[in-house]
Design brief:
The protein has about 280 residues and is an alpha/beta fold. Helix content is about 45%, strand content about 20%. The chain is built from eleven helices and ten strands. The protein has a five-stranded parallel β-sheet with strand order 3-2-4-1-5, sandwiched between helices. Strands 6-7-10-8-9 form a five-stranded mixed β-sheet, sandwiched between helices. α7 runs antiparallel to α8, α9 crosses α10 and α10 crosses α11. The longest helix has 18 residues.
Length: about 280
């Protein structure tokens, strides 16, 4: 019989969070695929597990997939782990899982820690179980980053982001410039010794982040407040033109501008249609 790929969630930091089932599976499989074998070895040693390790990270995942498929085809069970949390959730693993599914082999989840679920559970936002947009790590720069920021400001529900300590200040400043009063929950070093959960506004958090920040960060942005602020048509037009020039459709441009400027979307969409009509007449 063919082997099974076990997708095993590992602790974010506190080793007590590794489930008994995860310990058993890791001790039974033929091979463990690890994002960083240097990180995984101490975890396995803590539980007395000695199994062959195969590195599988974002730079070699496609190449390694063939080797894993061969192991499964020979009837060997394989476990997949990342450095922390659930593989494939802003961590390597999704490419391998897709290849295993495509080949027709069994994939079995061994659930456990996830920074996404952990941060949502302590965010304090009543909407944490509905309308959640998860983007993981934002692009560091360029057009892709701007498009992601537009997604964030346009989403009316919760938004969850991951960020590294050396980039969190820039990300928070970019978000605060667009929606300074939006509520946000920051989870830093979740489950670890210096765990911190802080809930405030984006503006206040951006100021706090100008100091030294250590540890991995998870941000949960609260829902948009439905306050209506009237602005001059020129301001609305300028924002719409920038969005349209960036390649957004009239619908997406209107949604983004309405969210950023806290205006009724229907009115902004009507203004966008008027601008497009004027542009067509001019041409």
């Amino acid at each position: 019989m063919a082997g099974t790929l076990h997708v095993v969630a590992t602790p974010l930091g506190n080793l007590e969070d590794l489930s008994p089932r995860a310990v058993r599976i890791l001790g039974e499989v033929h091979t463990i695929c690890a994002e960083d074998t240097r990180h995984t070895r101490p975890l396995l040693a803590h539980f007395g597990i000695t199994r062959p390790l195969l590195s599988l990270h974002e730079h070699n995942e496609r190449g390694r997939s063939d080797r894993v498929l061969a192991l499964l085809g020979d009837g060997h069970d394989v476990a997949l782990v990342s450095d922390a949390g659930t593989p494939g959730v802003s961590d390597p693993g999704s490419v391998l899982v897709a290849a295993v599914v495509e080949a027709g082999y069994r994939v079995s989840p061994v659930p456990g820690p996830s920074a996404l679920a952990t941060a949502l559970s302590v965010s304090g936002f009543a909407e944490s179980s509905t309308s959640v947009l998860f983007l993981g790590f934002l692009e560091p720069k360029g057009k892709s980053r701007e498009e992601q920021l537009l997604q964030v400001v346009a989403h009316s529900g919760l938004v969850v982001l991951y960020e590294s300590p050396h980039r969190v200040a820039d990300t928070l400043s970019a978000l605060a410039a667009r929606m300074p009063t939006r509520r946000v929950c920051l989870g830093r070093e979740l489950t670890k010794l210096y765990e911190e959960v802080r809930t405030t506004t984006l503006a206040e958090l951006a100021t706090w982040a100008q100091g030294e920040v250590r540890g991995e960060i998870t941000l949960v942005l609260g829902p948009l407040q439905q306050e209506v602020v009237r602005l001059e048509d020129a301001q609305v037009d300028a924002a719409l033109k920038r969005c349209l020039a960036a390649g957004l459709s009239a619908r997406d441009a209107s949604t983004a501008v309405a969210a950023v400027l806290t205006l009724p979307r229907r009115e902004v969409y009507a203004r966008c249609q008027m601008l497009r009509a004027e542009s067509d007449d001019a041409s």
